[in-house]
Every structure is written in C-alpha cells, then in structure tokens.
Design a protein that fits this description.
Blueprint (H helix, E strand, L loop, with lengths): L5 E4 L6 E4 L15 E6 H6 L2 H53 L3 H41 L1
Antiparallel strand pairs: 1-2, 1-3
Bound molecules: zinc ion (ZN).
Length: 146
C-alpha cells in the first residue's frame, strides 16, 4: 500500500510540495522547514484555487509573524541589556561611593571597579549575542531574497 503524501507549503516563496515524511525542505528556494498543511496530496488536488491560495497565504503569514516576534524579542532584550548596564553602573558607583565615604575605601573601590566591570561584561556579552542574532537574520534574509 502506498504511503500517504502530505502537502507542504514553503512560507518563503509559496511553493507547494508533498512528502511522505513529517518535514520537507523547499525544492525551489531551499527553505528548510516547509509548513505542513492538514491536507493529503489527493485531497489537496481536489481543493478549489481559492482554497489553495488561502492556505498558501496562511503559511506565508505564519513566517512573517515569526519574524516579527523574533525581531521585537531581540530589541526587547537589547533594551533590558541597556537598562541592566545603566542600573549596574549606577549601583556600583552608589555602593562604592557610600562605602568609601564610610571609610571603607578598599571595599568601596572593589565594589566600584568590580561592579562596573561585571556589569559591562555581562551587558556587553548579551548585546554582542543579540547583535550576532540580528546579523544572522539580516544576512539570511538577504540571501533568501535572491
Ligand atoms: Zn521556497
């Protein structure tokens, strides 16, 4: 008995394909994870053009939504990193200065310098990673548009 072929849609270029497996990559643009539809190939071929078009549009929309939520997540995390940086530096300065004015100069300097360095390193690392994530997405977007 032949296996049932499920219909997949490429959310990037709208190509329709079918596969017996649970995942498929687009044979036209190479997009690695085509969106599975609820239809088997036989059933798909019976759909009206209107129904097909609506299903393809829904698949394309799902990718756009993904991209939007990804980039807003990146900018949200970037904002958190900046707030973290400012709050951490302010905290280090305030704690350091209050310790120094209490006469605990050694502790104060440690808190001031150590706190600042720790804050800059953690916030910097997060921002570098976010930047790389954004770059990868941008490059991928450019490549896939070709
Ligand atoms: Zn494609």
């Amino acid at each position: 008995m032949a296996k049932t072929e499920k219909v997949f849609i490429c959310p990037k270029c709208g190509t329709v394909g079918s596969s017996e497996k649970n995942n498929a990559s687009c044979f036209k643009c190479g997009y690695p994870s085509m969106v599975p539809t609820e239809y088997e190939l036989k059933r798909w071929n019976e759909l009206s053009e209107q129904q097909k078009r609506e299903t393809i549009e829904a698949a394309e929309m799902s990718l756009k939504k993904d991209e939007e939520s990804n980039s807003s997540l990146i900018s949200f995390l970037n904002t958190i990193a900046i707030i973290w940086l400012i709050a951490g530096l302010l905290g280090a300065i305030i704690i350091g200065i209050s310790l120094i004015s209490d006469g605990q100069i050694g502790f104060g300097l440690c808190a001031l310098i150590g706190g600042s360095i720790a804050t800059v390193i953690t916030a910097g690392t997060v921002m570098v990673f976010l930047d790389m994530a954004a770059d990868v997405r941008r490059i991928r977007g450019i490549l896939e548009k070709k």
